[in-house]
Amino acid sequence: MSSHHSRRTPLPIPDVTIEDAFWAPHRETVRTKSLPHQEHQLRTGGQFEALKLEWKPGVAGEPHIFWESDVAKWIEAASYVLAREEDPDLDAAVDEAIALLSGAQQDDGYLNVYFTVVKPGQRFTDLRDAHELYCAGHLIEAGVAHHEATGKTTLLDIVRRYADLIDREFGPGGSCEGGYDGHEEIELALVKLYRATGERRYLDLALRLVDNRGTQPYYFDAECERRGTEGYFGTFLQDRVRRVDWFRQYNQTHLPVREQTETVGHAVRAMYLYTAMADLAAETGDATLTAACERLWDDMVGTKLYVTGGLGALHEIEGFGPAYHLPDRDGYAETCAAIGLVMWAQRMTLLTGEAKYADVLERALYNGVLSGISADGTRYFYGNPLASDGSVERSEWFGCACCPPNLARLLASLEHYIYATDPTGLVVNLYIAGSARLEHGGQTIRLAQATDYPWDGRVRLTLEADHDTDLTLKLRLPDWSDGPTLTIDGTEVDTTIEDGYLHLARTWAPGTVIDLDLGMSPKRVRANQKVAAVLGKVALQNGPIIYCAEGIDNAGAVPALTIRPDAELRIEHDSSSNLDTVTVEGVCERQSGDALYSTDAPKAEPTSIRAVPYFSWANRGKSTMAVWLRETAAGH
Amino acid sequence: MSSHHSRRTPLPIPDVTIEDAFWAPHRETVRTKSLPHQEHQLRTGGQFEALKLEWKPGVAGEPHIFWESDVAKWIEAASYVLAREEDPDLDAAVDEAIALLSGAQQDDGYLNVYFTVVKPGQRFTDLRDAHELYCAGHLIEAGVAHHEATGKTTLLDIVRRYADLIDREFGPGGSCEGGYDGHEEIELALVKLYRATGERRYLDLALRLVDNRGTQPYYFDAECERRGTEGYFGTFLQDRVRRVDWFRQYNQTHLPVREQTETVGHAVRAMYLYTAMADLAAETGDATLTAACERLWDDMVGTKLYVTGGLGALHEIEGFGPAYHLPDRDGYAETCAAIGLVMWAQRMTLLTGEAKYADVLERALYNGVLSGISADGTRYFYGNPLASDGSVERSEWFGCACCPPNLARLLASLEHYIYATDPTGLVVNLYIAGSARLEHGGQTIRLAQATDYPWDGRVRLTLEADHDTDLTLKLRLPDWSDGPTLTIDGTEVDTTIEDGYLHLARTWAPGTVIDLDLGMSPKRVRANQKVAAVLGKVALQNGPIIYCAEGIDNAGAVPALTIRPDAELRIEHDSSSNLDTVTVEGVCERQSGDALYSTDAPKAEPTSIRAVPYFSWANRGKSTMAVWLRETAAGH
Description:
Two copies of one chain form a homodimer. By secondary structure, chain A is an alpha+beta fold.
């Protein structure tokens, strides 16, 4: 179902193939390693078990308020796998989980273990802290994905009944009229449910939740008064953020959403809200929502985005700091926030037709998202710092396990992000070898994409059709491009660039071959001088890949390295890891003693500095690491 | 009264004069501006008024738990002024404050407004949070100082009665047997009271409080259980430090003091505790206390001391971070912590006879302490960051106003820190023009000191006596010295250096002139490579003075500056401020746009970088500032 007010529509999973040497192996790892590993964690960690509603007060293993969301994201990820290939074991495991969810659903449609067995009778009384609608949102997303993947309605029916209950509770005269969630998520899920079912009231509910947010009188105060106690987290979060007004920013309730101009607070919450706002703009054509999204985007991209596409400078709120506060070693950059950014950026690029959003999508995907998962698919980063003293490693699992299944569902649904259609033809947002299929001009058209991206900026597109077709191809020109060259059947052609896309509008003969060279070369990236944390330092980038130096490749001395200002950045392929590396000449400084302060200058020895893709770090044991490397100032 | 087990004894205030061009004006400002300004704050802020015990529940102006300490430190500072000069107005104001304190004292000796009118009946039940003994300690220090300065016993009698009550409550069978304070201070005060009165039980009480600290069963847990509620700060501080064991480190109760090896927690608390430990070692000869102090000192100086002598990297606990975590812009470095360091360092240098402690004393005094007060004496820094984005200014006062009167009492008692005696003669720890008087070998000896220190490392000492004297002079050789030269009556002499002092043992004729050139030149200082925050940067130092660049002198662009590696550091005197400055050639980088990230190299223009003494920053309006300046790595 296409959105009425969106410029573009993504191709569905079955119409896209990914057959490249970069993502296809990662996705196979997700299918064969991550999903079984996560299923094991959910079975042994209590998440599956809790759905039996057998927990009793005083017994160990009290169900946690987040747990449905872990199960739901795992089902959603598994569904995307099932959408493209048969996997009877996975299908059966998903059916088992759905049966458990069915058993946990109450007669009136309610489905939340914590408020059924731990705090019965208190449902929807702690919207600010208790993640009830957040869990509901993930269940809804899972139900939609499962239905689209398998055609089954088992989970979709469950979540529709639950959504119907929520609609009543949050509708006129309901117990939560005027309310909204403390952790955004359900809004974007309800838009998906609307698209899957055509039921307008799900869209209206999403819109109501977004419209209510941040209005006066302040719902969370009223809720707290009615309850007579602090919420689930007590004053923990308020104490962390120190002031009540900051705490309202924490969950983006400080202002009505259309009046919000700065990206603030908890980064995942923010991304999910903004994604929903873009979705709602796409469905309703509400230009005030689009404008709010554009303002928030500009603030984020202009002042608060890590070069890796990570978001959230502050550990204590898992969220945004002030403008330009982007500490590398002490930063946060939660994996889920980068995933949320991919989602928001996709909605924005579809909504507006502008490539700049897909540029950021790509930055996050290849760096701050992919760094969240180990090469073997079974260890995860919750935070993704841009420098490490060697103490940081990925973990098998987390008490709050939002990131692992979130990674799985994004990587398993990567098809959604590559191509889009508009009335004139096909848009290529990401360069990933494989193919796209679309119906256009009365025939089925297939666009085959061959490339060694992200290591090589050359892309060959072959148009396959039964007969000639009038079609506009829009090929994203990445923000890192040195300038493209393009040939059609071997003849160089001039192209126009609009909104960041190369436009190729013509009548295509079947078999036409388009060779696009995006112009990729390794480069130094510098942050704005207001970013005090990395002043005088450079990051190395080639194509979409941000590099980092790890101690294991550099005699353990990453902080001691300085790049020579004029030294060439040499790309070398490392056959053991199958990754490209960057090597550059520099110096390594060695201090003469252990004193805290000294007037002795350190000894500087020439050295070759080797950097590996940031996403690949911490796969070879503990090691120091830095994305930002010192470089001599020009002019010396 | 000299301490039995201390190597040295400081000269009393009346035997020392300060007649230099650096400190004398600062001290005159304290007398004529700071003390009246602080008195005004105490009169209008409620601190004086509260002592009338007229506050009633429900009325505004509830007395605060810290307030006696503000009054006490102001009295102490005023007393030091009165010790050296007559000031009838000040004397009368002090007498008025003492009369108020006398009126607030209860029949049994108790003296604390908060627990008399706000929480009557709850005295000594919240030792962890409520600062009761901390306030008592400051009252005792004030009583001793006032008695020594004026000969009056009005306040001394008051604090003795209070100390006697505390001794009973914390003694065998008392209500607080086994207890100790949550904010250390009274321990060092009781040692002063012992020295002033000769009453051994005050020393024993101090020792008991120190010995009890951190033992099992844990007193603060037992106290909390008895009380049945959280302490004054609730869970605020625990939440900030996140874990219970860290919270025990916060007030240095994680281990018995002799087992503590790392400087941890709230920095002022730590300094006051360690000062008391050194005092007790000096009185009792307990080598285990000396050894603990030495271990803690080495940890602090080796891993946690700012180059300015500031202490405490973490805002959230006003205290120490992990080793080598010394952020410049986001650091804390509370003025009171640097003052506490001066106190501890003095005790250590007296106790051990080693100059290295006085080196750190000097570093703190000329930088991290003096930065706490404005040139006009009426504005104060609570924290003293080593870099600023231009948003930081000194304040007239604080809700928690510990720093202003603490600065006043230290600067007003600077005489204590310059000279010390030992059985062989006189020790010079600080170079400050003026004089010292001592009885030695049956006659009064006066050592006149002439110098333009800290701007000039040349010092002339003239020995004045009635006849020849055998005496050893020990002159501290600062850690920044390039190597000293010394002449006696114009003849260069070789000297031996022991424990960091030049030793001159001889028979001196009256009028002998010693010319000492300490060897002062401006230099670059680098931090250990483990200090990630300032890697690749240098600080500029000349003599004891640490310099900083302010935006106002550098076209507003401090973060954009880079020093040329081989450029000369030129000392220039600024006649408008009467301060020395350092000028060095470097470059100023200008980025081409406002983007958060760019591949464009910044334009680098040659520039002269001007740095001013760190202590003098923020006296000319808001400005960016940095102590640590980027420098090109050697070898480029």
